[in-house]
Design goal:
Layout (H helix, E strand, L loop, with lengths): L7 H5 L3 H14 L6 H14 L3 E5 L2 H11 L7 E4 L6 H8 L3 E4 L22 E5 L10 H11 L2 E5 L7 E2 L2 E2 L6 E5 L13 E5 L2 H10 L4 E3 L2 E2 L10 H11 L2 H19 L12 E2 L5 E4 L3 H10 L29 H9 E4 L7 H15 L1
Parallel strand pairs: 2-3, 2-4, 4-5, 5-8
Antiparallel strand pairs: 1-9, 6-7, 6-12, 8-9, 10-11, 13-14
Helix pairs in contact: 2-8, 3-8, 4-5, 4-7, 9-12
Length: 365
């Protein structure tokens, strides 16, 4: 049996006709950038998340960039975030001339360790950027308490977590802004790059809308230096088609996660989900000191896996100038050596899940 890590063909097959009709509608509309399709999807995301405003943008990397820019982050500022994330999280901070200041992770949840944030704050700190990694919310109560106490902005990186809840409330509604990715492998995915920013702040909403169209408040009248960060109409239309299925898809992921939990809890370290969190399991991530050998074994049995992430950000060549070194963030470094993401998508069959569980058990037997 072959079980790919992700299978987009399987995902899109039942949606094919609906997606093709949607493409034809956009083609006939002759509105290809922003326009009615984007406005509709933004309205739907407001209803889905409970945020006051939603702004469609070109991708999640630039959602983060626009958020930081709108919050006034720039040269000489510091932004605290996690070193255990995709590079975009810290990359956008550096692109604006600010400095990423890393804070180690909680080894159970892989999210930023909120007990360590206070020690990373300096007179230059202007914002916190928590990442809701693998589909589980970070500790937003503590993060927002620190932010209020120190007068810091909060940008939620929820690239992997649309639909996740923290204490019964949708994430993306806590910070000053929150940034969503619709990369093709995400739980809610476009057929290309796409992103979105959520905010409850009307001033930030207006600023971001201006920044995404070259700093223009109206066509050819530019109030500031901005960016070309508009969401394509066709991607918004595809996302509109998929959004109505998202909760069902996320629930199927939770069902698969429970099967993994039941089958693997005595074999490897399974994901720890805080009791007050509802994860969407963008990734199902196990830990083992024999990660690489296990991955090879699963590959030999036709099972795809992934490592998110094999090298923490503070050890990347791109961030050598920050003068971190091996040992600076031991939990992130250890996680990078031990984590392994198993297939978890709504189209997996129970038979495939059992095959993966059995293969892991056989490896450790």
């Amino acid at each position: 049996m072959k079980v790919p890590f992700i299978d987009l063909s399987r995902h899109h097959k039942p949606l094919r006709n609906e997606l093709l009709r949607t493409f034809e509608n956009v083609l006939d509309s002759n509105q290809f950038i922003l326009g009615d399709a984007v406005k509709q999807f933004e309205t739907e995301l407001v209803a889905y998340t409970g945020a006051r405003y939603a702004i469609g943008v070109s991708n999640c990397t630039h959602a983060l960039l626009l958020s930081l820019k709108a919050c006034g982050i720039g040269s000489g500022d510091e932004v605290i975030t996690t070193p255990f994330s995709f590079i975009a999280t810290a990359e956008v901070i550096a692109l604006l001339g600010a400095t990423p200041v890393f804070c180690d992770i909680d080894p159970k949840t892989f999210n930023i360790d909120t007990d360590k944030i206070a020690g990373a704050i300096s007179s230059k700190t202007k914002a916190l950027m928590p990442v809701h990694l693998y589909g589980q919310a970070a500790d937003m109560d503590k993060i927002m308490h620190i932010a209020r106490e120190k007068n810091l902005k909060v940008i939620e990186d929820m690239a992997q977590a649309i639909g996740a809840k923290y204490r019964g409330k949708m994430i993306g509604t806590f910070g000053d802004t929150a940034c969503i990715s619709f990369f093709p492998t995400k739980n809610l995915s476009a057929l290309g790059d796409a992103g979105l920013i959520l905010t409850n702040n009307s001033e930030l909403e207006q600023t971001i809308r201006i920044l995404r169209v070259h700093g223009a408040s109206k066509k050819y009248y530019h109030d500031s230096i901005g960016f070309n960060d508009r969401l394509d109409a066709v991607q918004a239309a595809f996302l509109h088609v998929k959004l109505k299925y998202l909760d069902t898809w996320n629930e199927r992921r939770r069902q698969i996660a429970k099967k993994y939990d039941d089958g693997l809890r005595d074999v490897v370290m399974i994901p720890y989900i805080e009791p007050h969190n509802e994860s969407i399991y963008h990734q199902y991530t196990i830990r083992t000191s024999r990660r690489d050998d296990l991955r090879d074994s699963l590959s030999n049995k036709g099972i795809g896996t992934a490592i998110h992430y094999p090298l923490p950000l503070h050890l990347q060549n791109a961030f050598q100038y920050l003068n971190y070194s091996k040992g600076s963030f031991p939990e992130s470094e250890k996680a990078a050596e031990e984590v392994l993401c198993l297939p978890i998508y709504q189209d997996l069959t129970d038979e495939e899940v059992e095959y993966i569980i059995d293969a892991i058990k056989q490896f450790f037997s």
